[in-house]
Amino acid sequence: MDTSFNTTKEFAEALDKADVLYHVRDRFYIQPNEIYMDGNSLGLASKDAEASLLNALEDWKKEGIKIWNIEDSKYYHYSKHIASNMAPLIGASPEEVVVVGSTTSNIHQAISTFYEPTKDKYKILVDDLNFPTDRYAVDSQVRLKGLDPDDAVKVVKSSDGVFIDEDAIIEAMTDDVALILLPTVLYRSAQVLDWLVGWLVGWLVGWLVGWDLCHAIGAIEMDLTQIDADFAVWCTYKYLSGGPGSTAGLYINKKHFNRSPGTTGWFGNKDETQFQLNHTFEHQRDASGWQVGTPNILSMAPLEGVLNIFNEVDMHAIRTKSLHITSYLMYLIDEKLTDYGYSIGNLRDDFKRGGHICLVHDEAYRISLALKDKGVIPDFREPNVIRLAPIALYTSYEEVYKVVEILEEIAQDHLYEQYSTKRGLVV
């Protein structure tokens, strides 16, 4: 990958002309006079997602209750239908993927399925930098077992509050640990964990290991089959651009299909007996057996469309551009912004960096507000991080160039001083 960059606008334009993914921009709704850099919180709407959503809505309008039986019962088995296109993104078999719930509800489902504490082996190993919802769910599940999270939840502390030391995780894998839940990409610093190390130790000793893929799926290449993950959870509204609150994903390794779900519901029952409405649950022996209620068709439909883009383009091409365009952004930051108090807070190695750049500044919050008024949409994370996510499918190199120019102007002219430090509801 050629990273011989320069700081001219003409160079950015040349990079766009050479970009094999540039044409994909036309399939997304890019707003005039706006540069969207917030794809790691909510990806832009695509025309493909809109088409599949409107198609589902039209089917509902026309068919009513008959919608469940049209197109070979496509909507009744909608999770399986979408899973067939989602599974290649994580290196899984379609029968190991279910599109269901939210990230948090899926963590609850997974922990309640796999967490079987004994007197000597009862702890859940987590880190202190993962997104808070993971910890909330873990603590809740521990309490439901009658245990105290202060004792049963083992937390690997970050030494600097920014990155996780994989060696510290391995050191914490003691005999009293029953289950491990770790992030794949840290939401704040974009660090990619070396999950192969965690898998090796877990496999040798026999721990159950699960992964939060929220900031990884659609951004980096993954192979859950290769690492023999036990389970994984993810949302679909970030890099996957499935829409606000779009239905999440859950991976269950096929070696666990004989386990009973921790929380059961009628949509996890076998197809053959589901409408017999028996009061005895008969588990469908694949990931779809971890469904609980009726699928949320209109929250799933956009995924059907946008996943067509991902599978047409291929994750390798997406990751290649993502690494290149984030390298270009870091280069421009180094060359043009460091004199104004900006610094890069993510790891720079390709294999250690996710899909976004962690831009650090003492006035990060007020700068993020100024950016929005200048037509740039980033997001802010406490205490001093502006997350910039140049999305491979729709962000151009010229847009990255313009963002850096605007960041320079805001700092140089102290434009951020016009804004309050009071936090908004959504930042």
The helix-strand sequence is: HEHHHEHEHHEHEHEHEEHHHEEHEEEH
Helix count, DSSP H or I runs of 4 or more residues: 15
State the helicity in percent bands: 25-40%
Total number of β-strand segments?
A: 13
- Using the alpha-carbon principal axes, give the shape: globular
What is the percentage of strand-forming residues?
A: 5-15%
What structural class do helix, strand and pairing data support? Answer: alpha/beta
In angstroms, what separates the terminal alpha carbons? 34 Å
What is the average of the pLDDT values? 95
- Strand order of the main beta sheet, please? 2-8-7-6-5-3-4
Alpha-carbon Rg, integer = 22 Å
Walk me through this protein's architecture.
This protein is of the alpha/beta class and about 425 residues long. About 35% of the residues lie in helices and about 10% in strands. The strands form three sheets. A seven-stranded mixed sheet has the order 2-8-7-6-5-3-4, sandwiched between helices. Strands 9-10-13-12 form a four-stranded antiparallel sheet, covered by helices on one side. It has a two-stranded parallel ribbon with strand order 1-11. α9 links the parallel β5 and β6. α2 (about 45-65) packs antiparallel against α12 (about 295-315) and α4 (about 80-85) packs parallel to α12. It is globular and about 70 Å long.
